[in-house]
Amino acid sequence: MLRGYNTAGAGMIAQQRYQESLSNNMSNILTPGYKADRSTMRAFPEMLIRAYDSQKIPTQSNLQLPHNTNVGAINTGVYMQEGIPLFEQGSTRDTGLSTDLALINGDMPDDTGFLFYTIQNGDGDIRYTRNGNFTVDAEGFLTTSNGNYVLDENNNRIQTGTEQFQVTENGQVISPFDNTMLGIAYHPNANDLVKEGANLFRNEGEVEAVDARATAGVDFSVSQGQLESSNVDPQQTMTEMMRSYRLFEINQQVVKTYDKSMDMAANQIGRLR
């Protein structure tokens, strides 16, 4: 009986976490360059159920020998293992702002590879993003909307001095202060990247991101005055949210049924009248 409690409870927790992941995707549907999270469900190890009894041997002493048989396997529940970003190109839209840049993927040598802007966070560490909604700070440096510095191909900060600068298709930044190449990183296995917040990714794999221009088979272009939209599919996400809610309700009803059965077993069966 208690196994049913655990199994149904695990299902409720898994669907609650899945619902939170879907809600986060919906809340970022207008965030430029946002990559939707895909949640993976895993089952706990199965448990083998065996029945133990005794078998009477036809002898003068009626010898009893222990005996057991396999009943079968039972699943012990499900859990949401992790959320994996969906690295697919989002659609682009015109903004007309010179500080907005859309990174458009071309040919890739690996199916798991993806392109990113190179960013320096507040701690001075290298991070990656697809959000090209940039701005120019008071010192004339090109930054993200959160104040993180945009880097060039040599991991140096880009100083434009003004918002009136040009960016060519190959990522060259032309401004009165500096002419440099926008830092475009290529990671051959983007699944090694983990979301860090503020639309940034950090690398937790053994393979490092490399300069996209120095990598054979990598093709891309940069479009100024445009932004890459989120790749969240609102219709599919809403459908998944409704499905997850129904599954949560089903597990909830199972818990209520077990609770009634346990109440009957504890308070009614065996009651002296």
pLDDT below 50 for ≥5 consecutive residues: which ranges? none
The structure class reads alpha+beta
Shape: elongated
Number of domains: 2
Count of helical regions: 2
Strand content: 25-35%
Please trace the helix and strand order, writing H or E for each element.
HEEEEEEEEEEEEEEEEEEEEH
End-to-end separation: 26 Å
What is the count of β-strands? 20
Helix fraction bin: 10-25%
- Average per-residue pLDDT, rounded, comes to 88
Radius of gyration equals 29 Å
Largest sheet: 5 strands, antiparallel
Organism: Filobacillus milosensis
Protein name: Flagellar hook-basal body protein
Family: Belongs to the flagella basal body rod proteins family.
InterPro entries: Flag_bb_rod_N, Flagellar_FlgE/F/G, Flg_bb/hook_C_dom, FlgE/F/G-like, LlgE_F_G-like_D1
Describe this structure in words.
With 273 residues, this protein is of the alpha+beta class. It has two domains: 117 residues, no CATH class; 137 residues, no CATH class. Strands 7, 8, 11, 15 and 18 form a five-stranded antiparallel sheet that branches. A three-stranded antiparallel sheet has the order 12-13-14, with no helix packed on it. Helix 1 packs antiparallel against helix 2. It is elongated. The two termini are 26 Å apart. 25% of the residues are buried. It comes from Filobacillus milosensis.
Q: Can you give keywords for this protein?
A:
2 domains, 20 strands, three-stranded antiparallel β-sheet, alpha+beta
